[in-house]
UniProtKB/TrEMBL annotation:
Any matching Pfam family: Aminotran_1_2
UniProt keyword terms in alphabetical order: Aminotransferase, Lyase, Pyridoxal phosphate, Transferase
GO molecular function, one term: transaminase activity
Organism: Vibrio comitans NBRC 102076
Keyword Lyase carried by entry: yes
UniProt-recorded name of the protein: cysteine-S-conjugate beta-lyase
Keyword Nucleotide-binding set for record: no
Length: 399
């Protein structure tokens, strides 16, 4: 069953979120509670643990590749969860989601081409585009009220210019938490079609969808110039450091092009741990996943109500999906350095700076909330005291 407290093994964890060099570098202190990396603090589902333990006790790691069972398990999961029909023969496997995106950028665009991203967006998109010698073309999402929306007119103008050869979509969107609706995606596709632009849709967060929202995969939209990175078990089952990336397309030509490259580079199969963990997750993890989703939805609701009641100066964007919440601290009226000090030194919060995601305004931060609720409650109570203390200290400059 789903539990919130990890059992303490005696292995020396190398978790990035606790890495004191990185914490010191980013926050100026390592005395912070980490909410900055998008992974979960919970123990994984017991069917996955059991599969891994069996594998360890087998004490044999002969060559063992079984992508077929993995693709069948992913297809069945998506059919049941999202009513999304995927042909198990239409997947290509890669070592991870980011390596998949990196390969697709290189495979389907040329040096100097533009790749459109909708900022603020997951920071690695820009890195992958630029490190491949391509140009990241920013298309800024619009805020209307307390939600973000796509700017279709700007997308059309950018595609019309001829510079953009690929759209890199993030659905659900990290960090703003939007789950793009079918209507929104149906508005995007004809624009891409008109300019024959390939859409790559990163759907790694596709299972983490909260009540009242429906996930629509680009794979369901009958646009054959598209490739979908179907959610990997990284985000929904906490297998971040041992999961693969699964690229899906009903377009045989696109698939064969990727497959030729992955096979030529021997990138097309997972290791035994990844394979067994993924099969166990999708075949036997439903009960655990539903408990995890209910837990994080409850945490999201608690955060929203706490912030609205106790810290109404802080604007937030209620996530429709993903375990990330996006805050705008403008209402605290602090200079950027003061805000940073308030968050990391006084409230001891390691939040991800919004500037990482291409957000120019330094008042924005992202918080990953796949952590025990009691811990989050203590952290946000500390934030409230830090804000109150700051407001009551007249000698501290505010702008
Ligand atoms: C939108 C998005 N894509 C990809 C990744 C990373 O995927 P992986 O580590 O499996 O390559 C993340 C991780 O936070 C993410 O949020």
């Amino acid at each position: 069953m789903f539990q919130t407290t990890p059992s303490r093994g005696d292995i020396n964890n190398k978790f990035i979120k606790h890495d004191s060099n990185m914490l010191n570098q980013v926050y100026g202190t390592d005395d912070v509670t980490p909410y900055w990396i998008a992974d979960m603090d919970f123990p994984i589902a017991s069917p996955i643990s059991q599969a891994m333990q069996q594998l360890v006790s087998r004490e044999s790691y002969s060559y063992e590749f079984d992508s077929k069972t993995v693709f069948n398990a992913i297809s069945k999961w998506n059919q049941q969860r999202h009513n999304l029909t995927l042909n198990p023969d239409h997947f290509v496997q890669l070592p991870g989601v980011l390596s998949a995106i990196a390969l697709l950028i290189r495979e389907f665009t040329n040096e100097g081409d533009g790749v459109l991203i909708q900022t603020p967006v997951y920071h690695q998109f820009r890195r992958l585009i630029e490190s491949a010698g391509r140009k990241a073309v920013n298309n800024t999402l619009n805020i209307e009220g307390d939600r973000y929306f796509m700017d279709f007119d700007a997308i059309e103008q950018q595609l019309e210019s001829g510079e953009v050869k690929m759209i890199l979509l993030c659905n659900p969107h990290n960090p703003v938490g939007r789950v793009w609706t079918k209507a929104e995606l149906k508005q995007l596709v004809p624009i891409a079609k008109k300019y024959n632009t390939l859409i790559i849709s990163d759907e790694i967060h596709g299972d983490v969808i909260f009540e009242g929202n429906t996930f629509t995969s680009i794979a369901s939209l009958d646009y054959d110039n598209s490739l979908t990175i179907i959610g990997s078990p990284a985000k929904n089952f906490g297998l971040n450091s041992i999961s693969n990336g699964y690229v899906y397309s009903d377009n045989q030509q696109l698939r064969e092009k990727i497959k030729a490259t992955t096979v030529s580079m021997s990138l097309d199969h997972g290791n035994a741990f990844t394979t067994h963990a993924t099969i166990a997750a999708y075949e036997h993890g439903k009960e655990w996943f539903e408990a995890f989703l209910a837990y994080t939805q409850n945490t999201r609701n608690w955060i929203v109500s706490f912030m609205k009641n106790e810290l109404p100066q802080v604007k937030l964007f209620v996530p429709e999906g993903t375990n990330q919440i996006w805050f705008d601290f403008t209402g605290l009226n602090l200079e950027a350095a003061e805000l940073k000090a308030l968050l990391s030194q006084h409230a001891k919060l390691a939040l991800t700076p919004g500037t990482w995601f291409g957000e120019p305004d330094e008042n924005f931060y992202r918080m990953n909330f796949a952590s025990p609720l009691e811990q989050i409650q203590a952290s946000l109570a500390l934030l409230k005291s830090a804000v109150v203390e700051r407001q009551q200290t007249p000698e501290i400059a505010v702008k």
